[in-house]
Specification:
single chain; mainly beta
Length: about 800
């Protein structure tokens, strides 16, 4: 193989810095092939101190020019003539793709610089989807051709540039789907564990990480190079002065700039404008192949990108359109904008690419508009995604039986949904679907279509393989959907885009995208029990006992609570069933959930006995929140109990619900509703309607918090299995279902919280009627229509 010609480094200017890039050091080429690294001192008397690699790409013919700066340190007094050979390998076991050498003289007691420029044909570029890496081998010999040192480094050929308002990666627009990843890596003890973490992130559609240089080890960057993650590195100086900032930036950039995974340097600066200009000049002298994000209150235009720090759908849309956002940003408290800012400065941001950089850890409320925000990001070309939330928003570090693992938190499913590579829409009336490619990679996809009836799959088909170009849409009609006509069952259609082959982070048939749609016109039939046997009623000053064929209910006349439920002479309740006003986005313990109901009073009570059915009415005034709560119980002799709550909330966030603590339950819960995971958000997007089951104690061992965050939404029915095999079913009497959260504080009891999940307009039911055919109490014409909430559900008890 012909060697390339020697190049000079006359035009290479570079800031002197402390530290050097991480290289693997070997005693010989043979040791390099066997991966036997040197055990000699790190700095022999003459050694390669640093390598700086970069490339110029030609995207049309897939060629490149590899440019390498080398620094050789000679600690001896005398000059040493030497030859330095550079080899480029696609694989260690294969012959080099290309090679060249240079001759130089290492001056005594100083550092000598050299420069290679190696043209290469037919390269495989590095990207997030295809992280192709090459082995760069450098062999240093003396004038007797004796090997002085062998070093190797992995390198990926990729190019990142800013043109106008766009960031280009290998001549394609860059899309960042990232999170903040600081501090957590301190818990990683080995490379294998780190790779498992990165695999987990990949499975949740995360392709980018923003990290602090102080918290991250070299192994992290190597793994990101190999696995295809984009990384933004913060090079902040804690001392907040120019000298410290220069030293920190020079050290970090000098050590890490050969990693293809790093796409941007980030600096939070408190320096003045002149000092920032000097810092950026030095940083550019170290690396002019990446953009810089510099956050400075004095001059935000110094940054190569415009950064939005909060998830605000409307402002992100205005930024995408390039509109004046001074007023919006002032209202958000962004210190970079001020009322005195001139129009040129305020509008100059629209010439820059835009990226989201949120705080490292966000509250749940901040995620409410995540799906809409990502929709705007994909709509406007100047947006390039961003970093949303922190690792700990999505995953919780745990240890069970001495094994490290991660609990998947509800928000992890939301970020996965927001970062999906395809958008699917469907018209329930016409059965017309469309699939849009949100990525910048054209590939063949397979789409699986599943039709469900009341959560049970009844039909499955695969669409013809399709190749959707970036930004384009594929469409069609699902004819079998138009044939469904039964309005008493709930139909859903699910579109799933699946992998067609194995990848390092997932197997074939792994679901990349899943979207569910519901059929309109659902009108369920609410079953009302019938029996010829009457209920037995026993009433005292304190309680009302209603005894059916199988179940004995005890009601508290002073509170309206269900005090106890007996089945086969066995008590089921640990605490009474109580109505609560509470947002179930945060689950409380049983005692905390009713703290705001201690100050309440039953204004009126009445009972209607209609043969096999007994109706109880309670009007309760809750003084603490100044509201009236109406309760109605329908008890049937067959054992069923219908519960109706109605009331007006004190705040828009509160919802009407019920709490109950049951004992003697087995671990398993089955339900028809949204799942398989809970949600922290009312506007959740990642859950789907279906039939699910869960082991209550599976994740609630002694090393973990026993209270599961989030709620299970739109539940039509739920069953809990008793210790003797009997089942307790809670069924919704509302076609939209109820929301529920449940947890176990010990292995003997289970607490269930239910709420309506929605605010509705209803009329206050204050008077009974003489209509005995309808088991529900009707509304008096004198009632005033007002904003009320209802919670309607039914208990059913089944023997083992």
């Amino acid at each position: 193989m012909a060697l390339g010609k020697k190049k000079t480094d006359d035009r290479v200017k570079e800031k002197e810095y402390e530290g050097r890039c991480k290289m693997r050091v070997y005693d010989s080429v043979s040791d390099w092939k066997k991966n036997i690294q040197s055990d000699k001192p790190i700095d022999p008397m003459t050694h390669i101190e640093d390598l700086y690699l970069r490339c110029d790409l030609d995207h049309e013919d897939l060629s490149s020019i590899l440019k390498v700066n080398i620094r050789v340190r000679n600690l001896l007094e005398e000059k040493i003539p030497m030859k330095i050979k550079l080899y480029l390998h696609e694989d260690v076991d294969q012959d080099p793709i290309d090679a060249m050498d240079i001759r130089m003289v290492a001056q005594g007691r100083t550092t000598t610089k050299g420069y290679f420029e190696l043209p290469i044909d037919k390269m495989k570029f590095w990207s997030e989807q295809e992280p192709n890496l090459y082995e760069v081998l450098v062999v240093m010999t003396d004038h007797f051709d004796e090997t002085l040192q062998v070093v190797a480094i992995q390198y990926g050929f990729r190019e990142i540039k800013i043109k106008g308002e766009k960031i280009w990666m290998n001549n394609k627009p860059l899309m960042i789907k990232g999170i903040n990843y600081d501090g957590n890596l301190k818990k990683v003890i080995d490379e294998e564990t780190l790779r498992k973490e990165l695999m987990l992130l990949k499975q949740y559609n995360i392709n980018a990480l923003k990290v602090s240089a102080d918290h991250i080890d070299y192994v992290f960057y190597t793994c990101c190079d190999q696995l295809g993650f984009y990384v933004v590195v913060e090079v902040n100086n804690l001392e907040n002065n120019k000298e410290g900032t220069l030293a920190k930036a020079a050290s970090v950039i000098g050590k890490m700039r050969n990693h293809p995974c790093i796409i941007m340097w980030s600096l939070e600066s408190t320096l003045n404008k002149e000092e920032n200009l000097e810092v950026k000049k030095v940083m550019l002298s170290l690396d002019d192949r990446r953009p810089y994000r510099i956050h400075s209150e004095d001059d935000f235009l110094m940054s190569d990108v415009f950064v939005m720090e909060k998830l605000h759908e409307k402002i992100i849309e205005r930024i995408g359109k390039g509109l004046d956002i001074r007023g919006d940003m002032i209202l958000l408290g962004d210190s970079r904008f001020s009322k005195g800012m001139d129009e040129y400065t305020a509008m100059a941001y629209k010439k820059k690419p835009a990226i989201i950089f949120t705080n490292k850890q966000m509250g749940v409320e901040a995620f409410m508009s995540l799906k809409q925000v990502m929709g705007s990001v994909h709509t406007y070309t100047r947006w390039h995604g961003g970093f949303v939330g922190d690792f700990e928003n999505y995953f919780a570090y745990t240890r069970h039986n001495e094994e490290k693992s991660y609990e998947i938190l509800p928000l992890a499913h939301e970020i996965k949904k927001a970062y999906e590579p395809y958008a699917i829409s469907f018209d329930s009336q016409t059965a017309f679907y469309s699939i849009k490619n949100l990525e910048f990679l054209e590939e063949e996809i397979v789409v699986r279509v599943i039709i469900q009836e009341d959560g049970t799959p009844i039909m499955e088909e695969y669409l013809d393989p399709m190749c959707v170009k970036p930004g384009e849409v594929a469409s069609g009609v699902i004819k079998s959907w138009l044939e469904l006509s039964n309005e008493t069952v709930l139909y859903h259609i699910v579109f799933e885009i699946v992998l067609t082959s194995d990848l390092w982070w997932a197997k074939k048939d792994h679901i990349l995208v899943s979207e569910q749609f519901e059929k309109d016109g659902y009108h369920p039939v609410i079953y009302m029990p019938k029996s010829s046997i009457d209920c037995i009623v026993n009433e005292t000053n304190q309680t009302i006992d209603v005894i059916s064929e199988k179940v004995h209910y005890e009601f508290d006349k002073n509170t309206g609570h269900i005090k106890q439920i007996m089945m086969d002479h066995k008590a089921l309740l640990v605490h009474p069933i109580r109505p609560v006003w509470s947002s179930l986005s945060a689950i409380h313990t049983d005692s905390e959930a009713v703290d705001n109901h201690d100050n309440k009073q039953v204004k009126s009570y009445r009972m209607d006995k209609k043969g096999s059915q007994v109706d109880l009415y309670f009007d309760i005034k809750i003084k603490a929140i100044k509201t009236l709560l109406l309760i109605k119980y329908e008890i049937f002799s067959t054992g069923e109990l219908n519960v109706y709550y109605e009331g007006e909330p004190s705040t828009k966030q509160d919802r009407l619900g019920s709490t109950m603590t049951l004992k003697g339950l087995k671990n398993q819960v089955n339900w028809f509703g949204r799942g398989p995971h809970p949600s922290c958000l009312d506007s959740m997007t990642s859950t789907q309607m279906g039939l699910y089951q869960m082991d209550l104690l599976e994740n609630n061992h002694e090393d973990m918090n026993s209270i599961k965050s989030g709620t299970y939404k739109d539940i039509r029915w739920m069953t809990l299995t008793g210790s003797d095999g009997e089942e307790i079913m809670v069924e919704s009497l509302d076609k939209n279902g109820f929301d529920a959260g449940f947890f176990t504080l010990d292995q003997e009891t289970t607490t269930l919280l239910i709420d309506s999940g929605k605010i509705k307009q209803n009329k206050i039911d204050t008077k009974d009627t003489t209509d005995t055919k309808n088991t529900k109490n009707t509304t008096d014409t004198s009632s005033i229509e007002t904003e009320k909430q209802t919670c309607l559900y039914r208990f059913l008890f089944m023997e083992a």
